[in-house]
Amino acid sequence: MQAPGKPLDEARRIATLRTLNILDTPPEERFDRLTRLAKGLFGVPVALLSLVDENRQWFKSRTGLEVPEIPRDISFCGHTILGDGILLIPDAARDERFHDNLLVKHEPHIRFYAGCTLAAPDGSKLGTLCIIDRVAREFSDEDLALLRGLARMAEQELDAERMATMDTLTQLSNRCGFDTLTLHALDLYRRLEIPASLLFFDLKHLKQINDRIGHADGNHVLRRFARLLKQTFRDPDIPGRIGEDKFAVLLANAGRAEANAVLHRLRQTLEQDNRTARRGCDIVFSVSVVAFDAARHADASELLAEAEALMSAQKKQRHEREMRRPGARQRHEGRRTSTRHRDRR
């Protein structure tokens, strides 16, 4: 038996799958309708919508099969996600990869298999829509096109799940998606004793840009900053927009020194980007860095709370230093008076 390998983007693929919050959820009619349709159209006893998790193949929808999941190392769909499109096995008993597979020799006695990949918008192969028969059979070009069309419908339904955890403006994870991704990541880092760090960003002057120039320009700033985060950080890192002008990144396998190094790269990239930006739309940020401590941080919310408290303390210290400069208090009082006059008008 030939066990399936792992895709090159396995870490990103698993992270994308977890953001859907769909694993181990109850059956849903919108997915069951597709597997029933596939079973009827192709006249097969089994049709499945499967998601390939880290060590298992789990069925979001299944018709003709009782078990809710199988080990990934004996799955046909584990092979399917290694390629693009459809994996077709006309007769598994005559295929050297599968002839002695437990699923061929025992229930459900697979002979024929056709599975089409289900991909996320970033290209990650999340699973398959597949059909199974207990007898060998042929599959025409028309059949291939039909299965591919059903798989695209399944992808649309999965993408609806993704959008619930995605910030539509920046195409980063929103707070819900970020919490879900980091929960799984921190559990892994805790077990393997891998260092990690959280970067918490607060964009400055966003309100002034919105008020002075317009929300379109403010949105442009947010999209630019999200793009810079994607360019600067690695696939295993988890960026997210967690508030109106707040962003966070969980760095994998990174202590404070590595976090400071990547911040230096981000600032260099940002400096170059600001040179080409429209006047008045420069990106300026404050950032706090917190190293993950398994003994103190149960989840991302505790990391974020510490990072926010650290940033507040940093802001207070900067304000106190500013107020100690000659003439600073008078300038500050002048600004407050000017603001009160504007409010009265």
Provide the descriptors you would attach to this structure in a database record.
4-stranded antiparallel beta sheet, 11 helices, 46% helix, Beta-Lactamase, elongated, Alpha-Beta Plaits, alpha+beta, 345 residues
Topology:
Layout: H1 10-19, H2 29-42, E1 46-52, E2 56-63, E3 69-71, H3 77-80, E4 86-89, H4 102-105, E5 112-119, E6 125-133, H5 141-163, E7 166-167, E8 172-173, H6 175-192, E9 196-204, H7 206-212, H8 215-232, E10 238-241, E11 246-252, H9 256-276, E12 284-291, H10 300-323, H11 328-344
Antiparallel strand pairs: 1-2, 1-6, 2-3, 4-5, 5-6, 7-8, 9-11, 9-12, 10-11
What do these coordinates show?
The protein folds into 2 domains: 10-164, Beta-Lactamase; 167-344, Reverse transcriptase/Diguanylate cyclase domain (Alpha-Beta Plaits). Residues 337-345 have low confidence and may be disordered. A hairpin with a 4-residue loop joins β10 and β11 (246-252). 33% of the residues are buried. It is elongated. The strands form 3 sheets. A 6-stranded antiparallel sheet has the order 3-2-1-6-5-4. A 4-stranded antiparallel sheet has the order 10-11-9-12, with helices on both faces. With 345 residues, the chain is α+β, with helices and mostly antiparallel strands. It is built from 11 helices and 12 strands. The protein has helices at residues 10-19, 29-42, 77-80, 102-105, 141-163, 175-192, 206-212, 215-232, 256-276, 300-323, 328-344, and strands at residues 46-52, 56-63, 69-71, 86-89, 112-119, 125-133, 166-167, 172-173, 196-204, 238-241, 246-252, 284-291.
